[in-house]
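Hi W.,

Here's what went into the run:
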Amino acid sequence: GNSVTQMEGPVTLSEEAFLTINCTYTATGYPSLFWYVQYPGEGLQLLLKATKADDKGSNKGFEATYRKETTSFHLEKGSVQVSDSAVYFCALTLSTSGTYKYIFGTGTRLKVLA
Amino acid sequence: GAVVSQHPSWVICKSGTSVKIECRSLDFQATTMFWYRQFPKQSLMLMATSNEGSKATYEQGVEKDKFLINHASLTLSTLTVTSAHPEDSSFYICSASVRSGGENTIYFGEGSWLTVV
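Here's what came out:
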């Protein structure tokens, strides 16, 4: 079946530290991959996406590369800020599904300390 | 940008009662809305796909009679948890799909915490 596995949190970092949140997937077909972020008290917001192998999604200093050979989509940021504290969800949707069903990972809570 | 709003954000209800959660697209029309639930430390699980003017499509294992979904207009979908029990306590989140520029974009609501006591 289709699934997304992401590292369990919480992840606690100091400001300006390097961030990596691992995400791997299993899927039949050719999924599109996403990272969503949920700030406290808010809904999920799209952070970045990649629709095919070797694509790199980037936004707000975050980036992730669609690696088909390792079935991974790890999220990285070179220097985190306190304002990046949130829960991050890795997700996939299959372009052949027709109904845009998303399959999510469990979410990883990031806490950045000043 | 597009906004999806859920109400209420928090609700506590007694076992055996029903509770309704609303999902509204505030500045766009959404022909398709989705309902998810999330247990602690688990993934968001899709419960059902709600299409305006037609019956919802439920995922395998989701009880249609327990989780009533109504999508009466292009801006509102409701989830009613009937005869709620403590095991229904969870985080429920909706999303709405809008097509723009040949692409479908999904926007999520803030989520609703349900506690059944």
